[in-house]
Amino acid sequence: MLAVSNNLKAGFHLCSVVLKMSLKIEKWALVRGSAAVDRFLERPAFDPEAEKSAARILADIRRRGNAAVLEAAEKFDGAVLKVADMQLDESEIEAAAREVPARIRKAVKDAHVRVRAFAKAGMRADWQMKTAAGGVLGERFSPMERVGLYIPGGTAPLASTAVMTVTLAKSAGVREIVACTPCGHDKKINPVLLYALKIAGATEIYRIGGIQSIGMMAFGTGTFASVQKIAGPGNAYVTAAKRQVYGFVGIDQVAGPSEIAILADDSARAAWIAADLLSQAEHGSGHEKSLLVTDSMELAEAVRTELKRQIKALSRAEIVKRVIRRNGILLVVVPDLKQGMELVNRFAPEHFEIMTRRAARMLPLVRCAGAVFVGEWTPESVGDFVAGPSHVLPTGGAARMFNGLTADDFRRRHSFVQYTRDDLVASCESIGVFAEVEGLDAHGYSAAIRFENDKRTT
Q: Is 436 a catalytic residue?
């Protein structure tokens, strides 16, 4: 096990803040359930206030273009910008890259290489099959021409998200990759984030965030060409905006606050579990969710003790406490691991860690999870930063019907059919039947006309 950093060790001794809140342990079973667990599983599909704000600002951007974008940037981010300031030029990006220490550049490149390798390996290949009469059916894929990626840059400028989104679009073959991220009143963007965007392959970078960036990318402005698809995580306001521009452009998914669930037995280490639960609680919204499901009351109690101990050392301790006050960290004891897996599937978490004996054997039981981390040596943080799969994942229970971001999300799928004469002969009667049932005469005739006065159809 790696040594704890000196700063973290010091935090345990120097921090005088005491966690004055309880972390309850609940019991749950398929036959009896738990009201507290049910409340934890509930996550609102959308924020009404965010929806109203998004609708108002998006409508303004459609009417007034750049003027509305710049007004929103000043109001919400404190950035007083001109149209010429919106896009970063190459000299600014290069200057920022020079500020990044060598060890950080190395980490960014390492993540980029791993994510690119995974993205390329996972892309679907063109394929085809023969019909019974010698024709061909298949699918082929082509990259989108212009996509937009949102990179959060508020309380935590997510350089890793730059890698986890832009790299995928680049791997898919997209030529124009637009990245939007907010700046502050000084108009600056975190240098590491800019370096990551450059390495990953962004072709345009804009210091615009929030709802205004989604509107700009979806509708275009006087100086900005709209994109074909928008992807990337964001806060409730960004998510609301993405939802409302769907149809004008494609979107990857609607995502909310970060989540993690851990299924563990008594072989797992309480300190490791606590650290992993806290890793998702520190993101910043205060609405994050961290769930432990275990068949060991002793382990649950040990994890509770570790949580109270470790939180004192965190630089974002106050943020984590806000999550706890909102009951965003829950420890649940179940009768057995099979029932525990059922509870996790009902939660449908963004991230799911399996920390049990023979953890890989539990993998086939997973039905609803954005990304799964198997075994004690696979903390969720490897997925956030370096492992390979994108960390842009469904949240809020959306893992029941959405998947994580992949390179294929930036490509179009085209099915194709090439019939022979004999193929159409074999299908013509069925085509006519469907046309008759559905009252679509022209459909049937478009096939039948090819055989008028043709005795070879018999």
A: no
